[in-house]
Design goal:
heterodimer, A: 13 helices, 2 strands, 1% strand, B: 430 residues, alpha/beta, D-Maltodextrin-Binding Protein, domain 2, 2 domains, 6-stranded mixed sheet, 5-stranded mixed sheet, 19 helices, Bact_solute-bd_prot1 (chain B), Extracellular solute-binding protein (chain B), periplasm (chain B), SBP (chain B)
């Protein structure tokens, strides 16, 4: 009997050990598919694109030639690349300064005006539903210097001096394109803020109103602080999104004229697909990766610090 | 007992053999697919290609042609990716020149010379010059399939009649036409230069008129004495900017998109009187605006004072587009047979009915416009392929970029020439 009892006790202990082991191993087992997925579709391409930045290659056959840091040196001296990067930064700044506040105001207003707001929500959401290519073609026509409505309206109002060559003049091309990008993405941030506001308890607004607080006070003192976290997320998303922006700009101007509206992603596309310089184009992509990572890290750090201060 | 394992073994072997044979058998009995990509994105021209493929399929039971058609810019990208991934279509269309050479240099295109040598009668139908852009190291890599396309100046005859203008033959006459049109509030030229290649045509024609085809050939081939800083190219830049300063182009030219009709719209609305464009533009105008097509005619680019180039020279391609076979194609012989169906007399006749002239000897047509194009080509001293298609891709991009800058007056002709020469030297070093 005693041996049987000790055996079962030992068994139990062994079993518990197994259980503990299994529990420890479980996370790794569950993570394996994700890790494999990340390794194959993220890590491997990342490493191999950094590897490609050290070769000269047209992307065809076994014609790659190792050139060491040549591509990186060329990148450092490439004015067009830095100009593109600057355009990305401008786009990010404009989205934070113009796009986010407009989205915020829209979200607050829509959240307040419960009647009929559903229709407005849908209306404001439309730009996000349209494909960038369709939007690009649409705005190419709107900006058309000879037939487009913008210049026609300005001409009709007698403001001849205001009618410009919106997409063909290097001075206006970037601004014209950025305006459309901002407009297109406002709905996205509006929805983000609306979601943030949805978690704001109604009773608090009602209580504040009973205490005689005005709409503006409620907005500044209650809702805005409540949206802090959402706002930080929005800033981060807008920054990273702007740094890798591509589609609308490509359709409307292809980065032109004279590289005026070139961004890093369109410049990379031009190098890889128009110039057949896969090596250098990949260097641009790798530089983009580094720049975006640094900016995202800084933005993240800043928002963390902001969080502890408030 | 000894049989047992060996029986399983044989069974295994047998099933493996069956498994291996099944696809083979299926292939033998059913279909062999030949894939084909081109940029005949409108239904008429794609239909002509498909008809030829149907005839091929009928004559070759067991073979199926899978054709895909793409829009211009998307096609260039798609082809590049497919070749880069080593999964190109069996047969594909291109313009020859620099980009095709990239594929040839990486051993991804089939040399058609042996096939053509075996079919001399078929080959001799083509105008010899048409093989120029697809010939590398004396080997032919493509067949001219679609059209004879040269850059000419289309003009609105009604406007010219009203203002008592005649097609200019010299630079001074051209400047006069520009002045008269401007005085009457009609933009002289419609130009959609977002795409950069339409503007490039002016530069190429100017360089050809000023220095003849030699200057470019020497510079591109990096021959002794050849340079993109040659005075010929600097003068071409100066003349181009002279046009810009004379207000020769309708407002917004550097931002208008040719693919969505940015330039033709100006012609249709009588807001511009002329357009320098490939002769394919006539078919486009006839499809888009048949009424307007009635009052369109064309003239060739005028001569330039003291120009060494023969004013009868043309810029364009005899064979817009070429069709080639990729090395990855499993049925190369049949693919060549398919190419012959795509470029035989039946296909040529169908294209002629669609107002496109394949570069075949002695081809005749009733259409006065096409006859005029054929006449121009027949008298031409030389045919210069578009620079952006002739040059290696990276250099072609620099060419298009600098020309767009010349149009924008943001660069001097000397700076543009220096930039081209620097890029050409860098390219040659690689």
């Amino acid at each position: 009997m005693s041996t049987a009892i000790t055996r079962t006790a030992a068994d139990r202990q062994r079993q518990r050990k197994k259980w503990v082991l299994a529990q420890r191993a479980a996370p790794f087992v569950f993570m394996t598919p994700a890790v494999i997925f990340l390794a194959v579709y993220l890590l491997y391409p990342l490493v191999s694109s950094f590897r490609l930045s050290f070769v000269n290659w047209n992307g065809l056959g076994d014609t790659a030639v190792f050139v060491g840091l040549d591509n990186w040196v060329r990148l450092l001296h490439d004015g067009v690349f830095w100009h593109s990067a600057w355009n990305n930064i401008l786009l990010a700044l404009f989205s934070i300064v113009i796009q986010l506040p407009i989205a915020l105001v829209l979200a607050v207003v829509l959240d307040e005006a419960s009647k009929g707001s559903r229709i407005l929500k849908i209306l404001y959401f439309i730009p996000l539903l349209m494909s960038s290519v369709a939007l690009g073609v649409l705005f190419k026509n709107i900006y058309d210097p000879n037939f487009g409505p913008i210049n026609s309206i300005l001409d009709a109002m007698g403001l001849y001096g205001w009618a410009h060559d919106w997409l063909g003049d290097p001075r206006y091309a970037l601004g014209s394109v950025i305006a459309v990008v901002l407009w297109q993405n406002i709905p996205f941030y509006m929805v983000l803020f609306l979601a943030g506001l949805a978690s704001f308890p109604r009773e608090i607004t009602e209580a504040a109103r009973l205490d005689g607080a005005s709409q503006t006070t409620i907005f500044w003192r209650l809702k805005l602080p409540h949206l802090q976290g959402t706002f930080r997320t929005a800033v981060l998303l807008a920054t990273i999104g702007s740094m890798r922006y591509f589609d609308l700009i490509y359709v409307m101007t292809e980065g032109g004229p004279e590289n005026a509206s070139q961004v890093m992603a369109s410049y990379m596309y031009k190098q890889v697909f128009a110039s057949f310089e896969l090596g250098y184009g990949t260097t641009v992509a790798a530089a983009m990766f580094i720049i975006i990572t640094v900016i995202a890290a800084v933005a993240f750090r800043l928002s963390k610090r902001f969080e502890t201060e408030v | 007992m000894q049989f047992k394992p060996s029986r399983t073994f044989t069974r295994l072997l047998g099933s493996a053999a069956v498994a291996a044979l099944v696809p083979l058998a299926a292939q033998a009995q059913e279909t062999k697919t030949i894939t084909s990509w081109d940029l005949r994105s409108d239904t008429t021209t794609a239909g002509i290609v498909r008809d030829a493929m149907d005839r091929f399929e009928e004559a070759n039971p067991g073979y199926v042609v899978e054709d895909s058609h793409f829009a211009n810019d998307a096609y260039k990208t798609k082809l590049k990716i497919a070749f880069g991934a080593n999964e190109p279509p069996c047969i594909f269309a291109s313009w020859g020149g620099g980009p095709l050479k990239e594929y040839v240099d990486s051993d991804q295109v089939v040399d058609l010379t042996p096939y053509l040598d075996a079919n001399p009668e078929f080959k001799d139908r083509f105008v010899p010059a048409s093989f120029g852009p697809v010939t590398f190291n004396d080997k032919i890599y493509g067949l001219p399939a679609e059209n004879t396309a040269v850059a000419v100046i289309f003009y609105n005859t009604e406007i010219f009649d009203e203002l008592d203008l005649t097609p200019p033959e010299t630079w001074d006459e051209l400047m006069n036409v520009i002045n008269v049109l401007n005085e009457n509030n009609i933009a002289p030229f419609a130009l959609a230069n977002k795409n950069k290649w339409p503007g490039s045509m002016y530069f190429v024609l100017l360089a050809d008129r000023i220095g003849g085809p030699e200057a470019f050939r020497k510079a591109a081939a990096r021959e002794e004495g050849g340079s993109f800083e040659d005075p010929v190219f600097i003068e071409a830049g100066e003349r181009l900017q002279e046009l810009v300063e004379a207000d020769a182009f309708a407002r917004g030219y550097n931002g208008l998109d040719y693919d969505v009709g940015g330039s033709r719209r100006l012609l249709y609305a009588d807001r511009a009187a002329m357009e320098l464009m490939g002769s394919w533009e006539m078919a486009t105008i006839r499809n888009e605006n048949p009424e307007f097509a009635e009052k369109v005619d064309f003239f060739t680019f005028p001569s330039v004072p003291d120009g060494k180039g023969d004013p009868s020279n043309v810029v364009g391609t005899l064979g817009d587009n070429y069709v080639s076979i990729s090395s990855a194609c499993p049925y190369k012989d049949k693919a060549f047979e398919l190419l012959t169906y795509l470029t035989n007399d039946d296909a040529a006749a169908a294209r002629l009915a669609d107002q496109r002239v394949m570069p075949l000897k002695g081809i005749t047509t009733e259409d006065p416009f096409l006859n005029k194009v054929l006449e121009v080509v027949g008298e031409a001293g030389s045919v210069q392929l578009w620079y952006d298609q002739e040059l290696p891709p990276a250099l072609g991009e620099v060419h298009k970029d600098t020309v767009q800058q010349l149009f924008g007056l943001s660069i001097t002709p000397e700076e543009a020439a220096a930039e081209m020469e620097q890029a050409a030297q860098a390219e040659a070093q690689q």
